[in-house]
Amino acid sequence: DLGCKSMRGGYAFSADAKPIRLFGLDLQAYENVDVVADGHAIPIKCNSLDVVLCVSVLEYVRNPGEVLNEVFRVLKPGGLIYLSVPFVFRYAPDPDDLYRFSVRGIQVLCGSFEKIQSGFNRGPASTICDLLVHFNAILFCFNNRRVYNLLVDLFQWALFWIKYIDRWIGHYNMAHIIHNGAFFLGRKPIEFIQTK
User: DSSP secondary structure string, 93-108?
Assistant: First the structure.
C-alpha cells in the first residue's frame, strides 16, 4: 500500500482468498507504516510484489512517472497495480498538492502496464456536491478559518443528498465530463523480466 499513512490495509478482500502479506510504505512513520521510504526509490527487490495499491498519492509526489516506474520495477510479471487519483477536486495540501489526472491522463501515465480497467470513480453530482460544500463555506466564512471549518460540516450535512443524483446520471455518456477522480487497474506484462 504505497502512501498508506495510518490506513494500511483498510481494504476488503475475499474471505476465501489465499492469505496475503500486506505492508504499508509511506514517507513518514505513521502507526501502520512498515517501510518508511520515498515512492521515487522503493527499497524492494525487482519483480517481488504481486499487487501495489496507490490511492490518492500521485497528486502529492514530485514526479508521478518516476513513482510509476518504481512500481513497475517492483511488481512481478503479471503483478497488479491499482491507482486512484483526483481530477476535479479541491486543493488538498499534504503538504503539497501538485497534480490532477483525467481518466485519459492516468491511462497515458500507466502506458507501461496492460490496462484491465480504468474510468472515473465519482460522478458529476458527487463532484459538484463536494465543490458546492467548499464554495459555500468560503463564501459565508468571512475569511475566518474556524467558521469555514464549521460551515464545511454544516454544508456537508445540508447538501449530502446531491451526490445521490449520480445513481441516475452517473452512467450517462456525458458523465465523464465532470468527475471527481480517475482510477486505473492494470497488470505488468507477463513476458517482462527486469534484472536491475
Answer: -SS-------HHHHHH
